[in-house]
Design goal:
It is a single chain. This protein has a single domain, classed as Sandwich (Jelly Rolls). Strands 9, 11, 12, 13, 14, 15, 18, 19 and 20 form a nine-stranded mixed beta sheet that branches. Strands 1, 4, 5, 7 and 8 form a five-stranded mixed beta sheet that branches. Strands 3-2-6 form a three-stranded antiparallel beta sheet, with no helix packed on it. By secondary structure, it is mainly β. Strand 12 and strand 13 form a beta hairpin. It starts with a strand and ends with a strand.
Length: 252
């Protein structure tokens, strides 16, 4: 199925809502649900979609589509926050709607990027920034981008990066609540060689926050982006910084 429009709606304090496919496309386990308050294993799952808003309604440019194999198993992950800034009632839910288009009208399929800084360290009583830079294996046309951090985050920016020079500012989010899902006009960000993103945190507590999944005691500096063309029908790229080294991995 070729999908050129997606709707994701959530009830509750949305931390994020993700849709994945398995790296093993023959994977077939019983349908069901489980508690999962950590990130998924990216050796086993590939990101397709990501939203942090209560409602995402995204129509892709003409001819551009996500690709889903017939009968492939999908994983939907929904994380909620309930701490005063966001409220999550016990009857929270999330819904994904995928709208098909004729495959013969597809000119290019979408790839997804997950970027992560595992060196995050936010000291007490300080304003701190951290930057991660990622060069893609090939230039891409960017379709959409969103940033992600926890409650100490006050600003998230992203710029074009060519390996040596910081270029055009393409994303700028202030504050924590409802981070923007920035969509770009078709061709607006063409031939992008890479991306640089920076998180700024303001920590007024006595606590040091390191990388981790829990909003009350950890911090994040993650990027989710979507682009075309992909190599083949499906493409997933990770850009992860750990111990000051950035590793880019592409599956297609």
């Amino acid at each position: 199925m070729a999908v050129n429009r997606v709707k994701i709606k959530v009830k509750g304090g949305s931390h994020h809502i993700h849709l994945y496919r398995p790296t093993d496309h023959t994977r077939d386990v019983p349908d069901g649900h489980e508690t999962c308050n950590f990130a998924v294993n990216f050796d086993e799952w590939e990101l397709i979609l990501a939203s942090q808003s209560t409602l995402l309604n995204w129509k892709l440019p003409p001819g551009i589509a996500f690709h889903f194999k017939g009968g492939e198993q999908l994983l939907a992950q929904t994380h909620y926050v309930d701490n005063g800034l966001l409220s999550s009632p016990p009857d929270g839910w999330a819904i994904f709607n995928l709208y098909a288009m004729p495959a013969k009208k597809v000119t290019s399929y979408v790839g997804s990027i997950f970027g992560q800084d595992k060196d995050v360290l936010v000291p007490p009583h300080a304003v701190t920034t951290a930057t991660t830079r990622c060069v893609f294996p090939k230039p891409v046309t960017m379709l959409a981008l969103t940033g992600h951090y926890h409650f100490r985050g006050v600003r998230f920016t992203a710029n074009v990066w060519d390996g040596t020079t910081t270029g055009q500012l393409v994303y700028d989010q202030l504050g924590y609540l409802e981070p923007a899902f920035r969509r770009y006009r078709d061709g607006e960000l063409a031939n992008i060689p890479g991306i640089e993103w920076t998180c700024t945190w303001d920590n007024q507590t006595d606590q040091t926050f390191e990388f981790g999944p829990f909003t009350d005691r950890n911090e994040h500096c993650n990027l989710f982006a979507f682009y075309y063309p992909s190599v083949g029908t499906n493409e997933f790229m990770t850009c992860v910084k750990k111990d000051q080294q950035v590793t880019v991995t592409v599956r297609n």
